[in-house]
Write a structure and sequence with these properties.
Helices cover about 35% and strands about 20% of the residues. By secondary structure, the chain is an alpha/beta fold. The structure holds adenosine-5'-triphosphate and magnesium ion (MG). Adenosine-5'-triphosphate binds near residues 180, 183, 322, 356 and 357.
Length: about 450
Amino acid sequence: MKQSPVEQKLSRLVPDLNQRLRQDVARPKRGRVRRVVGVVVHATVDEVRLGEICNLVDPKTGRSVRAEVVGLENEQAILLPLADLTGLSSLTEVVPTGAALQVGVGPGLLGRVIDAFGKPLDGGPEEMPGVERNYSVHADPPSPFARALVSDPMQLGIRALDGLLTCARGQRVGVLGEPGVGKSLLLSDIVRGTDADVAVVALVGERGREVREFVERQRAAGGMARTVVIAATSDRPAIERLNAAYVATTIAEYFRDQGKHVLLALDNVTRFARAQREIGLASGEPPTRRGFPSSLFAALPRLLERSGPGEKGTITGLYSVLIEGDGTLDPVAEELQALLDGHVFLSSELAQRNHFPAIDVLRSRSRLMDTVVPAQHRADAGRIRELLARYAEVELLLRVGEYEKGHDAVADEAVARIDRINDFLRQETASHETISAAQKRMREILDEKA
Ligand SMILES: Nc1ncnc2c1ncn2[C@@H]1O[C@H](COP(=O)(O)OP(=O)(O)OP(=O)(O)O)[C@@H](O)[C@H]1O
Ligand SMILES: [Mg+2]
């Protein structure tokens, strides 16, 4: 086709216009940092998505810091850097990567302690052979119809739980208690005592000492070989503490997809919630219940729904929660109880009496127990619960010497058997037992002549 004189002139002036246009389309749309307030970066970028990772690049020094998009406001993106920002200049460019945070997964993770980016924290080799592919840390839960039905019990190795609050493979349970009642120690004992194929443990916002203690305890028991620990201690940035929980869930999903029965322990959800609150408030979200932003109440079900049964394998989730008093006013505890299929309350009163693990059996529930235990087990557990409840009713009378035998057969039996029941419920830390041993002991307690 013949070009007009004007067109001929134009094409001489900008011969490579088309080529330049094409390059522009192919090149990632860079943005600019506009404002940095505290740890929050506001930037103008053409096209980014929530959860996307961007690189903040200083064009002079070439220094680059990864940051996650956590909000969008007035044509600006709100980003949280994943590392220290010191030294970045006002010229800093924002380069979207088009992808959310990813973590390398594979059998090479077993026995390792990593941070929220999948980097080793245990002083072991940087390269992890057998870490074969990347999973995005923000995944959707399996569709309800793609999940197998729960049908088998999961041994936790703790008599009080396996006997009276049996957990199913793929069940999700909250472990609630005041500070220092033994939540972390209980989770640690469960990780050793469970018959799960793989244990994935997220230590979120713990003290550095506790991470070390956890790993040493597992090593001493030989349980580390099938365990992966993901740790983000309390001094790490909020986004890292948050991501530790997502990364752990992602790693558990990988092993579940391999057909394994995985135990996922998250210690603890309260610190996850606080990290979400820090981020919400810093990015301008208004606080709602107890200062927690509404994004938390959207994030919790998204996180918790990812555990549970898959098509082949299962993720049994244990989520510890720090509560004050009886926890009735705690929005995180309340939300968790609504979302999970069971809860285990640890009682400070029992802990004070040196009754460990300090499990308050009567306040705790396992909603799936009845579907996974045989009839005899169900009946025995029901009877022991009944005796415990009746004993609690007459305990005060006993203490003041006003209890009279012979008026109530169940109360008499409860008083006669209480010491054996308490022996059953108490367990030395670092010891574990099978479900069938717990069943046998319950039968013996009830068979013995009262
Ligand atoms: N099974 C147990 N046997 C003996 N002592 C225990 C047991 N569980 C907990 N304790 C005692 O309770 C203390 C606190 O336990 P742990 O650190 O597990 O509590 P926590 O609920 O995780 O506390 P925090 O809320 O501070 O994280 C332990 O140092 C130990 O002295
Ligand atoms: Mg703890």
